């Protein structure tokens, strides 16, 4: 098997975060596609807490869930760094905070 060294950009926000009347995670995916990133996926979490220690979880009768949403983007280090500038502007424009990480990863298969 052949491995390719890439980087993974992970953005964790709430599902209620909006960017220009569009869910932020959706806007990030479209921006990544437009930027020619190799691939991106969005995961919806079932429970989380962050810096403010506010626990977010699914509650059947709650009016607003705001569950965690994880967006992962895979590409070269150079392209990830370039995309971080776009992401920074998006996050500032919608006044959204979230957790953003970058880590090295090995791609085994890409189709």
From TrEMBL:
Signal peptide: none annotated. SUPFAM superfamilies: GlnB-like. This is Uncharacterized protein. Pfam families: DUF190. InterPro entries: N-reg_PII-like_a/b, N-reg_PII/ATP_PRibTrfase_C, UPF0166. It comes from the Bacteria. Belongs to the UPF0166 family.
